[in-house]
Amino acid sequence: MIVTIDGVAASGKSSVSGGVARALGVPFISSGLLYRAATLLGLEARLDLHSAPALLAHLHTHPLRLEPLAQGNRVWQEGRELTDELHSSRVDRGVSVVAVLPEVRAWVDAQLRALPSPFVAEGRDMGTNVFPHAGAKFYLTASPHIRAQRRAHERPEDVPAIEAALIHRDELDRVQSAPAADAVVIDTGPLTLNGVIQTILAQLPE
Ligand code: CDP
Fold first, then answer.
1. Mean pLDDT of the chain
2. Could you tell me if 11 and 173 are in contact, meaning their C-beta atoms sit under 8 angstroms apart?
3. What pLDDT was estimated at residue 15?
4. Would the N or C end of the chain have less CB density within 10 A of its end CB?
5. Which CATH code for domain 2-202?
6. Smallest Cα–Cα separation from 59: which of 37, 80, 79, 28?
7. Is any atom of ligand 1 closer than 6 Å to the C-beta of 28?
8. 3-state secondary structure string, 71-125?
9. φ, ψ of residue 34 in degrees (nearest 5)
């Protein structure tokens, strides 16, 4: 079975998906890492991030591979591991520009659909576009301020700067971020990480 966990930026998707996947004994797939890796390669090659042909040509000559390990996903570009470089503020700033390109989305979707199930898939459009027939779908939200406070532990900027950047990215990601009609929406604001994981596990079909 496939479980999808979508949600807005810094809503806790990766940590929650990892916890749910470990409880189920299946891998989780972090789709955002492929968008982030495509952005990093585009920045390094000084490509125009608005240009799908330039990005796609580069991705074909520099193939990326997502490794969906239970303890955390890794991304490889041939023998080079990119994982640790994917969460910089510069990638945060560029990724929504890249993720809006239909050609890039099709490239990510094809890689995700080729992975063997069962798994937990997290991102923005896992339940709507990529795995519409998933067995269970969830959508995580929280206020921008709470999300910025959480992300402040992972970025050098202060909370107001992070909050402004998150609100801007929410806006840029809005088109692909709508919850599936059949997703269970969870406000993670008042919950601990384990509280969100347990809420999801309690609602999974037998
Ligand atoms: O948690 P956060 O949103 O910061 O990171 P992420 O899940 O790694 O997603 C990074 C970016 O990738 C998002 O801001 C979207 O622009 C894009 N993305 C997307 O468009 N569709 C997905 N399924 C996953 C990510």
1. 95
2. no
3. 93
4. C
5. 3.40.50.300
6. 37
7. no
8. CEEEEEECCEECHHHCCCHHHHHHHHHHHCCHHHHHHHHHHHHCCCCCEEEEECC
9. -70, -40
pLDDT value of position 71: 80
pLDDT score of 13 more than 80 = yes
pLDDT band at 201 (very low <50, low <70, confident <90, very high): very high
Mutate to test the pocket of ligand 1, among 33, 35, 141 (most ligand atoms within 8 A of CB): 35
What spacing in Å lies between the alpha carbon of 62 and ligand 1's midpoint? 21
Cα dihedral value 155, 158, 164, 165, nearest 10: -20
Tokens, residue 149: 């406070």
Minimum CA distance residue for ligand 1 atom 2: 9
Kindly give the pairing relationship between strand 119-123 and strand 80-81: unpaired
Q: Supply the DSSP symbol for 190.
A: T
Which residues make Cβ contacts (< 8 Å) with residue 38, sequence separation at least 6? Answer: 55, 59, 64, 98, 104, 107, 108
Cβ pair 19, 127 in contact under 8 A: no
Q: Tell me what percent of the residues of the chain surpass a pLDDT of 70.
A: 100
Q: Is the pLDDT of residue 70 over 80?
A: no
Q: Which atom of ligand 1 is nearest to the CA of 169?
A: 14
Residues 6+ apart with CB under 8 A from 195: none
